[in-house]
Write a structure and sequence with these properties.
This protein is an alpha/beta fold. It has two domains: 156 residues, Rossmann fold (3-Layer(aba) Sandwich); 86 residues, Dihydrodipicolinate Reductase, domain 2. 33% of the residues lie in helices and 24% in strands. It binds NADP nicotinamide-adenine-dinucleotide phosphate (NAP).
Protein backbone atom coordinates (compact mmCIF):
# COMPACT_ATOMS: atom_id res chain seq x y z
CA UNK A 1 0.00 0.00 0.00
CA UNK A 2 1.33 3.41 -0.98
CA UNK A 3 1.01 6.19 1.56
CA UNK A 4 1.34 9.68 0.11
CA UNK A 5 3.71 12.19 1.72
CA UNK A 6 0.86 14.64 2.07
CA UNK A 7 -1.08 12.15 4.12
CA UNK A 8 1.65 12.10 6.75
CA UNK A 9 2.17 15.82 6.86
CA UNK A 10 -0.81 16.94 8.90
CA UNK A 11 -2.19 15.88 12.20
CA UNK A 12 -5.20 13.73 11.40
CA UNK A 13 -8.37 13.55 13.41
CA UNK A 14 -9.92 10.33 12.26
CA UNK A 15 -9.25 6.85 11.01
CA UNK A 16 -7.51 6.69 7.65
CA UNK A 17 -9.13 5.28 4.54
CA UNK A 18 -7.48 3.91 1.39
CA UNK A 19 -8.53 5.48 -1.91
CA UNK A 20 -6.87 4.51 -5.19
CA UNK A 21 -3.95 3.01 -3.24
CA UNK A 22 -3.36 6.20 -1.24
CA UNK A 23 -3.78 6.34 2.51
CA UNK A 24 -5.92 9.38 3.38
CA UNK A 25 -6.53 10.67 6.89
CA UNK A 26 -9.85 12.25 7.60
CA UNK A 27 -10.13 15.99 8.11
CA UNK A 28 -12.78 18.39 9.26
CA UNK A 29 -13.59 20.45 6.16
CA UNK A 30 -15.58 23.67 6.12
CA UNK A 31 -17.47 24.03 2.87
CA UNK A 32 -18.42 27.50 1.68
CA UNK A 33 -21.05 27.15 -1.02
CA UNK A 34 -23.50 24.25 -1.01
CA UNK A 35 -24.87 24.88 -4.49
CA UNK A 36 -24.60 22.77 -7.64
CA UNK A 37 -20.90 21.96 -7.23
CA UNK A 38 -20.42 22.44 -3.48
CA UNK A 39 -23.11 19.89 -2.63
CA UNK A 40 -21.25 17.27 -4.69
CA UNK A 41 -17.96 18.24 -3.02
CA UNK A 42 -19.62 17.50 0.33
CA UNK A 43 -20.85 14.13 -0.95
CA UNK A 44 -17.44 13.08 -2.28
CA UNK A 45 -15.64 14.32 0.86
CA UNK A 46 -17.93 12.29 3.12
CA UNK A 47 -17.39 9.22 0.94
CA UNK A 48 -13.67 9.75 1.49
CA UNK A 49 -14.33 9.78 5.26
CA UNK A 50 -13.93 13.49 5.89
CA UNK A 51 -16.25 15.35 8.20
CA UNK A 52 -17.94 18.20 6.32
CA UNK A 53 -19.46 21.31 7.86
CA UNK A 54 -21.32 23.77 5.66
CA UNK A 55 -21.57 27.52 6.07
CA UNK A 56 -24.47 29.15 4.24
CA UNK A 57 -24.29 32.55 2.53
CA UNK A 58 -26.84 34.02 4.94
CA UNK A 59 -24.60 33.08 7.90
CA UNK A 60 -21.43 34.46 6.32
CA UNK A 61 -21.95 38.01 5.01
CA UNK A 62 -18.62 39.45 3.79
CA UNK A 63 -16.78 36.42 5.20
CA UNK A 64 -17.69 37.56 8.72
CA UNK A 65 -18.18 34.04 10.09
CA UNK A 66 -14.63 33.01 9.20
CA UNK A 67 -12.96 34.08 12.43
CA UNK A 68 -10.03 32.27 14.03
CA UNK A 69 -12.31 31.30 16.91
CA UNK A 70 -15.02 29.85 14.65
CA UNK A 71 -12.44 27.98 12.59
CA UNK A 72 -10.37 26.57 15.44
CA UNK A 73 -11.57 22.98 14.86
CA UNK A 74 -11.50 23.21 11.06
CA UNK A 75 -8.59 21.62 9.17
CA UNK A 76 -9.23 23.21 5.78
CA UNK A 77 -11.75 25.50 4.03
CA UNK A 78 -13.17 24.76 0.55
CA UNK A 79 -14.83 27.57 -1.42
CA UNK A 80 -17.35 27.02 -4.24
CA UNK A 81 -19.27 30.28 -3.87
CA UNK A 82 -19.42 33.31 -6.17
CA UNK A 83 -16.91 35.74 -7.68
CA UNK A 84 -18.53 38.37 -5.45
CA UNK A 85 -17.97 36.46 -2.17
CA UNK A 86 -14.74 34.59 -2.73
CA UNK A 87 -12.18 37.33 -2.06
CA UNK A 88 -13.59 38.17 1.36
CA UNK A 89 -13.66 34.45 2.14
CA UNK A 90 -10.02 34.06 1.12
CA UNK A 91 -8.96 37.08 3.14
CA UNK A 92 -10.80 35.93 6.28
CA UNK A 93 -9.66 32.28 6.05
CA UNK A 94 -6.05 33.28 5.51
CA UNK A 95 -6.18 35.68 8.47
CA UNK A 96 -7.54 32.79 10.55
CA UNK A 97 -4.45 30.81 9.41
CA UNK A 98 -6.48 28.15 7.61
CA UNK A 99 -5.47 26.41 4.41
CA UNK A 100 -7.95 26.77 1.60
CA UNK A 101 -8.98 25.16 -1.69
CA UNK A 102 -10.74 27.62 -4.01
CA UNK A 103 -12.90 26.27 -6.82
CA UNK A 104 -14.79 29.52 -7.38
CA UNK A 105 -13.85 31.23 -10.64
CA UNK A 106 -14.14 34.80 -11.92
CA UNK A 107 -11.71 36.48 -9.48
CA UNK A 108 -8.34 35.88 -11.15
CA UNK A 109 -7.60 39.58 -11.60
CA UNK A 110 -6.89 39.47 -7.84
CA UNK A 111 -4.52 36.48 -7.92
CA UNK A 112 -1.43 38.55 -7.07
CA UNK A 113 -3.18 40.08 -4.06
CA UNK A 114 -4.35 36.66 -2.83
CA UNK A 115 -0.86 35.23 -3.27
CA UNK A 116 0.55 38.05 -1.15
CA UNK A 117 -1.98 37.38 1.62
CA UNK A 118 -1.19 33.67 1.63
CA UNK A 119 2.57 34.13 1.59
CA UNK A 120 2.44 36.74 4.38
CA UNK A 121 0.39 34.43 6.58
CA UNK A 122 2.38 31.27 5.76
CA UNK A 123 -0.75 29.33 4.97
CA UNK A 124 -1.56 27.25 1.90
CA UNK A 125 -4.03 28.00 -0.87
CA UNK A 126 -4.76 25.94 -3.96
CA UNK A 127 -7.02 27.36 -6.66
CA UNK A 128 -8.16 25.87 -9.93
CA UNK A 129 -10.15 27.11 -12.88
CA UNK A 130 -11.18 23.51 -13.35
CA UNK A 131 -10.58 20.54 -11.02
CA UNK A 132 -11.36 17.92 -13.66
CA UNK A 133 -8.37 15.77 -14.59
CA UNK A 134 -9.63 15.63 -18.19
CA UNK A 135 -9.65 19.40 -18.52
CA UNK A 136 -6.14 19.62 -17.13
CA UNK A 137 -5.01 17.15 -19.78
CA UNK A 138 -6.83 19.37 -22.28
CA UNK A 139 -4.66 22.32 -21.16
CA UNK A 140 -1.59 20.33 -22.24
CA UNK A 141 -3.26 19.48 -25.56
CA UNK A 142 -4.08 23.18 -26.06
CA UNK A 143 -0.46 24.11 -25.51
CA UNK A 144 0.74 21.53 -28.04
CA UNK A 145 -1.93 22.49 -30.56
CA UNK A 146 -0.78 26.14 -30.57
CA UNK A 147 1.81 25.16 -33.21
CA UNK A 148 -1.09 25.27 -35.69
CA UNK A 149 -1.05 29.07 -35.46
CA UNK A 150 2.42 29.12 -37.00
CA UNK A 151 1.17 27.07 -39.96
CA UNK A 152 -1.66 29.17 -41.35
CA UNK A 153 -4.46 28.16 -38.99
CA UNK A 154 -6.87 30.63 -37.38
CA UNK A 155 -7.77 29.63 -33.81
CA UNK A 156 -10.90 30.30 -31.72
CA UNK A 157 -12.22 29.16 -28.34
CA UNK A 158 -15.90 28.45 -27.70
CA UNK A 159 -17.33 27.71 -24.25
CA UNK A 160 -20.86 26.65 -23.27
CA UNK A 161 -22.32 26.63 -19.76
CA UNK A 162 -25.68 26.61 -18.00
CA UNK A 163 -27.66 29.84 -17.85
CA UNK A 164 -26.94 30.39 -14.12
CA UNK A 165 -23.18 30.74 -14.53
CA UNK A 166 -22.19 34.17 -13.23
CA UNK A 167 -18.83 34.78 -14.98
CA UNK A 168 -18.06 34.92 -18.69
CA UNK A 169 -15.82 33.91 -20.27
CA UNK A 170 -15.34 30.86 -18.06
CA UNK A 171 -12.15 30.55 -16.02
CA UNK A 172 -11.40 27.38 -17.99
CA UNK A 173 -11.66 29.18 -21.34
CA UNK A 174 -9.33 31.88 -20.06
CA UNK A 175 -6.88 29.19 -18.91
CA UNK A 176 -7.00 27.51 -22.36
CA UNK A 177 -6.31 30.89 -23.99
CA UNK A 178 -3.37 31.44 -21.64
CA UNK A 179 -1.86 28.04 -22.54
CA UNK A 180 -2.10 28.85 -26.25
CA UNK A 181 -0.76 32.36 -25.73
CA UNK A 182 2.24 31.19 -23.73
CA UNK A 183 3.11 28.69 -26.46
CA UNK A 184 2.49 30.92 -29.48
CA UNK A 185 2.29 34.58 -28.43
CA UNK A 186 -1.19 34.82 -29.97
CA UNK A 187 -4.31 35.67 -27.97
CA UNK A 188 -7.36 33.78 -29.22
CA UNK A 189 -10.88 35.14 -29.20
CA UNK A 190 -13.31 33.45 -26.76
CA UNK A 191 -17.02 33.15 -27.55
CA UNK A 192 -19.32 32.27 -24.63
CA UNK A 193 -22.75 30.63 -24.84
CA UNK A 194 -25.14 30.29 -21.88
CA UNK A 195 -27.82 27.70 -22.52
CA UNK A 196 -29.94 25.20 -20.57
CA UNK A 197 -28.12 23.16 -17.96
CA UNK A 198 -24.85 22.53 -19.85
CA UNK A 199 -22.27 21.46 -17.23
CA UNK A 200 -19.31 22.80 -19.19
CA UNK A 201 -18.11 22.37 -22.77
CA UNK A 202 -14.89 23.89 -24.15
CA UNK A 203 -13.90 23.78 -27.79
CA UNK A 204 -10.64 24.86 -29.35
CA UNK A 205 -11.05 25.11 -33.11
CA UNK A 206 -8.39 25.78 -35.74
CA UNK A 207 -9.45 26.68 -39.24
CA UNK A 208 -7.30 26.68 -42.39
CA UNK A 209 -8.05 26.76 -46.13
CA UNK A 210 -7.26 23.02 -46.26
CA UNK A 211 -8.87 21.58 -43.11
CA UNK A 212 -10.24 22.18 -39.63
CA UNK A 213 -9.07 20.84 -36.27
CA UNK A 214 -11.71 20.45 -33.53
CA UNK A 215 -10.57 19.85 -29.95
CA UNK A 216 -13.34 19.50 -27.39
CA UNK A 217 -13.80 18.71 -23.70
CA UNK A 218 -17.38 18.07 -22.61
CA UNK A 219 -18.10 17.50 -18.89
CA UNK A 220 -20.85 14.90 -18.33
CA UNK A 221 -21.42 15.87 -14.69
CA UNK A 222 -19.93 17.97 -11.89
CA UNK A 223 -18.56 14.92 -10.12
CA UNK A 224 -15.13 15.23 -11.77
CA UNK A 225 -14.80 18.76 -10.34
CA UNK A 226 -15.83 17.57 -6.88
CA UNK A 227 -13.41 14.64 -6.81
CA UNK A 228 -10.56 16.89 -7.95
CA UNK A 229 -11.36 19.47 -5.27
CA UNK A 230 -11.43 16.93 -2.44
CA UNK A 231 -8.23 15.27 -3.59
CA UNK A 232 -6.66 18.73 -3.87
CA UNK A 233 -7.66 19.38 -0.23
CA UNK A 234 -6.00 16.13 0.84
CA UNK A 235 -2.87 17.14 -1.08
CA UNK A 236 -2.79 20.65 0.42
CA UNK A 237 -3.16 19.54 4.03
CA UNK A 238 -0.16 20.70 6.05
CA UNK A 239 1.44 22.58 3.13
CA UNK A 240 2.30 26.26 2.82
CA UNK A 241 2.29 28.15 -0.47
CA UNK A 242 0.13 29.30 -3.35
CA UNK A 243 -0.70 26.61 -5.91
CA UNK A 244 -2.59 26.30 -9.19
CA UNK A 245 -4.30 22.91 -9.63
CA UNK A 246 -2.98 22.65 -13.18
CA UNK A 247 0.55 22.46 -11.76
CA UNK A 248 -0.14 19.80 -9.10
CA UNK A 249 -2.84 17.45 -10.42
CA UNK A 250 -0.26 14.90 -11.54
CA UNK A 251 0.84 14.49 -7.92
CA UNK A 252 -2.63 13.55 -6.65
N1 LIG B 1 -12.97 24.91 -10.35
C1 LIG B 1 -13.88 24.05 -10.80
O1 LIG B 1 -13.58 22.90 -11.19
C2 LIG B 1 -15.32 24.49 -10.85
C3 LIG B 1 -16.33 23.60 -11.26
C4 LIG B 1 -17.65 24.04 -11.21
C5 LIG B 1 -17.95 25.31 -10.76
N2 LIG B 1 -16.93 26.15 -10.40
C6 LIG B 1 -17.19 27.49 -9.88
O2 LIG B 1 -17.66 27.33 -8.54
C7 LIG B 1 -18.52 28.43 -8.23
C8 LIG B 1 -19.85 27.87 -7.73
O3 LIG B 1 -20.50 27.24 -8.80
P1 LIG B 1 -21.93 26.52 -8.61
O4 LIG B 1 -22.35 26.16 -9.98
O5 LIG B 1 -21.84 25.47 -7.56
O6 LIG B 1 -22.79 27.77 -8.09
P2 LIG B 1 -24.17 27.80 -7.25
O7 LIG B 1 -24.94 26.56 -7.48
O8 LIG B 1 -24.80 29.11 -7.59
O9 LIG B 1 -23.70 27.83 -5.73
C9 LIG B 1 -23.08 28.93 -5.14
C10 LIG B 1 -23.20 28.80 -3.64
O10 LIG B 1 -22.42 29.83 -3.02
C11 LIG B 1 -23.04 30.12 -1.80
N3 LIG B 1 -22.49 31.37 -1.27
C12 LIG B 1 -22.50 32.61 -1.82
N4 LIG B 1 -21.89 33.49 -1.00
C13 LIG B 1 -21.46 32.80 0.08
C14 LIG B 1 -20.76 33.13 1.28
N5 LIG B 1 -20.34 34.39 1.53
N6 LIG B 1 -20.50 32.16 2.19
C15 LIG B 1 -20.91 30.89 1.98
N7 LIG B 1 -21.56 30.51 0.86
C16 LIG B 1 -21.85 31.44 -0.08
C17 LIG B 1 -24.52 30.13 -2.13
O11 LIG B 1 -25.22 29.90 -0.95
P3 LIG B 1 -26.82 30.15 -0.80
O12 LIG B 1 -27.46 29.05 -1.56
O13 LIG B 1 -27.00 30.06 0.69
O14 LIG B 1 -27.07 31.52 -1.39
C18 LIG B 1 -24.60 28.93 -3.08
O15 LIG B 1 -24.88 27.73 -2.37
C19 LIG B 1 -18.60 29.28 -9.51
O16 LIG B 1 -17.66 30.31 -9.45
C20 LIG B 1 -18.22 28.28 -10.61
O17 LIG B 1 -17.67 28.92 -11.75
C21 LIG B 1 -15.64 25.76 -10.43
Amino acid sequence: MFCSRAAYMFSYRGLPGVFGGTLVFSMILLLLGHGKTGSLVAEVARQRRHEVRVLRAADNPHGSALTADNLRHIDLVIDFTTPHAVLENISASVHAAKNMVVGTTGWYGELAHARQLVENSRTGLLFGANFSIGVNLFFDIARTSAAALEHGYYGQIFERHHVHKKDAPSGTAVAIRREVQQASGSELEITSFREGDVVGMHQLVYDSPNDNIYLCHDAKSRRGFAEGAVRAAEWLAGKQGFYDFKDVWRQL
